[in-house]
Write a structure and sequence with these properties.
The protein is of the alpha/beta class. The protein has 8 helices and 10 strands. It binds nicotinamide-adenine-dinucleotide.
Length: about 250
């Protein structure tokens, strides 16, 4: 079926969708960040203090990504493309949605498998991706440079406190949603957390998360209080039933 005729399902995913693949979340329980002050690692100040520490941290995340696989939640979402016009907006820097087969994935916090020279992809060059490089899962070394001015390569991720260049694209997608699914995000990291406010009247909003989050308190959000894999099965079955009773 032509994508224009399908119901548009916009998904806002966060670290929780990848938790069952073995990638730790930021917060809660055994969160990756409970022992690491993230302002020190994922921030321009952290980089200024020690580019080596930041580089090694992301090298480790990238190496781990090579070892994990998409889980049932990523796979169900990809399979829903047969019946829905699925658009994924992810806060995740992993590539598990793509590896599951999802075709439309917008990364708002960057991608682990990419790097860029320090002076590129800034407001000065209009966030041009010309010098963004795909490096797969390999580590980056201090002293490794690129771009026209041969500057140190840094992770192609949005550090805390940095601008989120894909935010307006993401807001437009949320505005066009017939159904909005928020999955595995604590909705605590702004500005991404504000995206659900762009949903139009009449858009059905669902959330899959085993915990209460700021969004789950909002009237009208259907909260499936379960982990991503089980929650996605419930969500898919719920939508199927609705389609068949219309
Ligand atoms: P977060 O860590 O703040 O919140 C994770 C949410 O997932 C929580 O609400 C938690 O209850 C829920 N959760 C935990 N286990 C779950 C499961 N099995 N199924 C479903 N939900 C589960 O994550 P966030 O809101 O995405 O925070 C944003 C930041 O985290 C982003 O900037 C993102 O780049 C970064 N991050 C990404 C990854 C990744 O790429 N996989 C991993 C860690 C952090």
């Amino acid at each position: 079926m032509d994508n224009n005729k399908k119901t548009r399902l916009v998904v806002l995913s966060g670290a929780g969708i990848s938790a069952e693949s073995g990638i730790q979340t930021f917060r809660g329980g055994d969160g990756l960040w409970d022992n690491v002050p993230f302002e020190e690692i994922c921030s321009p100040i952290g980089w200024a203090k020690s580019p080596k520490r930041v580089t090694e941290f992301y090298n480790a995340r990238r190496a781990q990504l090579a070892e994990v696989k998409p889980n049932e939640a990523h796979l169900i979402l990809a399979s829903m493309q047969d019946d829905y016009d699925v658009r994924i907006i992810t806060q995740n820097v992993d590539n598990l949605h793509e590896r599951a087969g999802s075709k439309h994935v917008l990364h708002i916090h960057g991608e682990l498998t990419k790097v860029r020279p320090l002076d590129c992809y800034t407001s000065k060059d209009g966030f041009s991706t010309e010098y963004v490089q795909d490096i797969g899962y390999r580590p980056v070394e201090i002293g490794e440079v690129g771009g026209p001015n041969l500057k140190q390569l840094r992770p192609h991720v949005v550090f805390f406190g940095e601008e989120v260049p894909n935010l307006s694209k993401a807001a437009r997608l949320v505005q066009q949603a017939d159904i909005l699914l928020i999955i595995g995000t604590s909705m605590q990291v702004y500005p991404a957390a504000g995206l659900c406010n762009y949903a139009q009247d009449g858009c059905d909003i669902y959330m899959i998360d085993p915990s209460e989050t700021p969004a789950s308190a909002v009237l009208g959000v259907n909260h499936i209080k379960n982990v991503a894999t089980e929650g996605m099965k419930e969500f898919r079955d719920m939508l199927n039933k609705m389609t068949h009773t219309i």
